[in-house]
Amino acid sequence: MFRRNRADRDFREAQRAGQAVLATHTEWPQPDLTGPLAAPADATVVPDFLPPQFRAPCRQDVSGFMMRWHLPLVINGEVHACHCGAYRNWIVFNMRDDSVWLRCEAGHEAEETRLDTAWYNRNSGPVDHFHPTLDEGLRHLGH
Question: Are 127 and 65 in contact (CB under 8 A)?
Fold first, then answer.
């Protein structure tokens, strides 16, 4: 019982001390904000964003992303296979319109509606290269 009363008394004292600190802020003079705020004469303006050559392209600047998928691609518990019989070594494309396309080693491409951008983002690593054309990207990935 006494421990609880002592804790309540300590809490009330801490509250009073906090209110006293807050009350001192109301006694400070208000800053003069009526005049224009001028920068010092020797201050130089530094841009707050990276120059264009150091910026990475955003999602809207590229047509899509691609990655290798060496293992058999399992979608909803089934191994996905191309009509030519290939079931591994895919190139997975994630396009700007959030569609996912698969390309086998033989060059057959098909949209896979059971995969989405969230699946691609979970399974892909960071972007390591940007390529100006699709052929250069495929050559980089070994196709």
Answer: yes
* Cβ atoms of 91 and 59 closer than 8 Å: no
Cβ atoms of 111 and 100 within 8 Å: the answer is yes
**Where along the chain do its domains lie?**
59-140
pLDDT digits (tens, 9 = 90+) for 58-83: 777 788 888 999 999 999 999 999 99
For residue 21 the two structure tokens come to 């600190």
Collapsing DSSP states into helix, strand and coil, what is residue 65? strand
CA pseudo-torsion sign 117, 118, 124, 125: positive
Cα angle, residue 92 at apex, residues 88 and 95 outer, rounded to 5° = 165
Q: What is the model's pTM?
A: 0.59
